[in-house]
Each structure stands twice: as structure tokens, then as C-alpha cells.
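hiii, so i know i said id send this last week but things got crazy w the move. better late than never?? heres the sequnce for the chain we talked about at the cafe, plus the structure i predicted for it. fair warning i was half asleep when i ran it
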Amino acid sequence: MTETRQGVFDLLDKMGIPYKVTEHRAVFTIEDMENLGMEHIEKVAKNLFVRDDKKRSYYLLVIRKDKSANLKDVQQKIGSRRLSFASEDDLSRRLGLLKGEVTPFGVINDNENVVSVFFDEDLAGFDFIGVHPNDNTATVWISVGDLAKVLKSVNHEASYIRI
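okay and structure toks below
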């Protein structure tokens, strides 16, 4: 079963993890997020779903919204084959998400445990970040440490690398 935003909220509540939610219109890009005029916009995370060239390994990169990821550099740091962005079909099949909904919470739906999660080291200094709850009409504000706990609870250990 694919966990929707309510499934994310239920898991957070069950784990006793504090979070806040900001409802908003559907957004598909960081630029869309910036145009909302939300408080704490600088804490929104950009989430990139990538795969290796054999479609055997998938990675979710969680970075500051104002950064870009050099995939060749990331590939070397994580010891992967050549990386490229995953297709919308891969996104749907692996994380149960649609374009514009990419979020670390998507790994809740990775029942085959094929997606590895990497946080940019820069996020470790943030007291909280904003990510979608498996739906792009809301943003969940959660501590990076608590987000890592949620991922671990669904068998996905988050690693930190410099992106």
C-alpha cells in the first residue's frame, strides 16, 4: 500500500515526533515554493531522485534549496555507477510519488528497500527543514534528526555527504 500524506502524519504521530504543517497550493519546483511567500522558505529542502545507469540502484539526495548537485561528484562520493535523474515511472514505481512530490518520506513506500538516502552535510546545521508529506500541497517542518529517525524506522538509514 502506498502511504499518502495522512500515512506520513500518522507515522510521525505514532513515533511522537514533533512537526508542523503548512498547507499550500500544489507546487512542482523550488521556484514554485519560493513564490508562495512562506515563512522559513530558506529551510525548504530540494529533493533529487536519481538512479545508476543500470537502473539497479536508486538514490534520494536531500540538499539545500539553493544548491545544485554535480551528479558526477556525487557518484564518486557514494561509489556508484554513472548517475542520472530517474524517470517519472521510476519515481512512481519506487516511491509511490508523482513529479513535484519528491520527498524523503517517499521511502516509506520503498518496500523493496532499493533507495538509499543521502543528506547534504549542510543540512546537519539546520534546526529544521521543510519537505513534502508525499503530496505537493503541503510542507512538513521537521528536525533533520527526527527525519532521519523516521527513515530508519522504515529501514532506510540516511547518510551525510558533502554535495
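btw The chain has one domain: 5-161. thought thatd interest u
miss u guys!!
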